[in-house]
Amino acid sequence: MADPTPAEVERYIAQGLNCEHLQVEGDGRHFFATIVSVEFEGANRVARHQRVFQALGDRMREQIHALSMKTLTPAEWAASAPSASNHHH
Length: 89
Known about the structure:
Distance between the termini: 45 Å
Order of helices and strands: HEEHEH
Number of strands: 3
Radius of gyration: 14 Å
């Protein structure tokens, strides 16, 4: 099976998870995903990661160990965004 591209990983996650913000970077072997979803509210980090793996399903069974994630709720994302303080409307 060919290594998925970051765009493909992004699409897989988006198909199974309602994401407010989603960004995947990687080289085909290792991926780093920033995922913001309302579905993470009230869930701890492990539960959030399980939720993402669930969204990915079998498509990345082989590559899943190479995926690092930052999982945030919209509120956490807003609080961590550097541009939040100087927001332009």
